[in-house]
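Methods — Computational structure assignment.
A single polypeptide chain was analysed. Its primary sequence is given first, followed by the predicted tertiary structure written as structure tokens.
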Amino acid sequence: YYRNRGIGKSKTFLKGSEETAKAVNVKEVAFIEAVNAFVEEHVGNNDFVIEDLAVEMGMSRTVFFKKMKGLTGLAPIEYVRDMLMRHAADLLESDDYSIKEVSYMVGMNDAKYFSKCFKKKFNMTPSEYRKKYASMGT
């Protein structure tokens, strides 16, 4: 609906990561910013589910899924997981927390699953990431 209207200024939005950019209008950028704010507010809440996010955005789960997929190229759960992994990477760079603590801090109670998701995102385990980047931080 929004993409076909062509109303509003175009802005560049990063599609899931810094590698791919897509022009979208201001309302779409505001929507993604609202999603990001809600997810950031609920980082670490292991009771958080995508349905909560859809309700917060005033949409059914199906409509929300289609909108997120159209804007970011990712399913909502993939988008949220990507945000969580980037947050985890920041925490690992600080070297203040154990990997298990970081896992809990991003709302994943299973450290093995956390490591699997992290490796999928960064092509290295959390401990490899920490060894590579912790000394470079600050």
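Note: DSSP finds eight helices and two strands in the chain.
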